Amino acid sequence: MEEVQLDRLDRNILTALARDGRISMAELAAKVGLSKTPVQARVKRLERDGFIRGYAAIIDRERMGEGHVAFVQVKLSDTRSAALDAFNRAVLSVSEIEQCHMIASNFDYLLKVRTKDIAAYRRVLGERISALPHVAQTSTYVAMETVKDR
After folding, report:
1. Whole-prediction pTM value?
2. Using CA atoms, how far apart are residues 18 and 36, in angstroms rounded to an integer?
3. Tens place of pLDDT for every residue, the chain, 150 residues?
4. CB hemisphere CA count around 35 (13 angstroms)
5. Residue 28: which of 17, 41, 44 has the closest Cα?
6. Phi/psi at 115 (nearest 5 deg)?
7. What secondary structure, in 3-state letters, does the chain show?
8. Could you give the CA distance from residue 77 to residue 83 in angstroms, rounded to a whole number?
9. Taking a C-beta distance cutoff of 8 angstroms, is the pair 132, 94 a contact?
């Protein structure tokens, strides 16, 4: 895969869009010091080249009844490729798992899990996460407050 170089204007466009994905092309152009047409062309190129993967709304999870956040360390019983692939595929089907990261540590994965409350989390842990392929051990850390979430 060819590495695409981003210039200062591309980076400024990406920064502005990350802050406000609904910004108009005219506003974006003014922010980065270009006219509308070259900004539109750059945005299309950044989308085509995969730098912009999509646009999304930032949802207030607390108001949606998903205010309980837990981070779960997962240690697998098998870390060969087939086992990792099976775990990765299975994680995608658990809607409460918001993020899943393979970690270089004394455990294998770190999950960010969102639920309504601790009781709902306990059910998800016992019935869904612990049942994922090759899970040998989990450790949970409950977030008491979110200071920054971007």
Report:
1. 0.82
2. 18
3. 567 789 999 999 999 999 999 999 999 999 999 999 999 999 999 999 999 999 999 889 999 999 999 999 999 999 999 999 999 999 999 999 999 999 999 999 999 999 999 999 999 999 999 999 999 999 999 999 999 887
4. 1
5. 17
6. -140, 175
7. CCCCCCCHHHHHHHHHHHHCCCCCHHHHHHHHCCCHHHHHHHHHHHHHCCCCCCCCCCCCCCCCCCCEEEEEEEEECCCCHHHHHHHHHHHCCCCCEEEEEECCCCCCEEEEEEECCHHHHHHHHHHHHCCCCCEEEEEEEECCCCCCCC
8. 9
9. yes
* Structure-token match 């770190």, residue found: 110
* Block residue for tokens 């920054």: 148
What distances in angstroms separate CA 55 from CA 12, 21, 104, 105, 135, one per listed residue? Answer: 17, 6, 30, 33, 33
β-strands 135-142, 97-102 pairing:
unpaired
Q: How many residues are given for the chain?
A: 150
Backbone conformation region of residue 78, classed left if phi is above 0, alpha if psi is from -120 to 50, else beta = beta
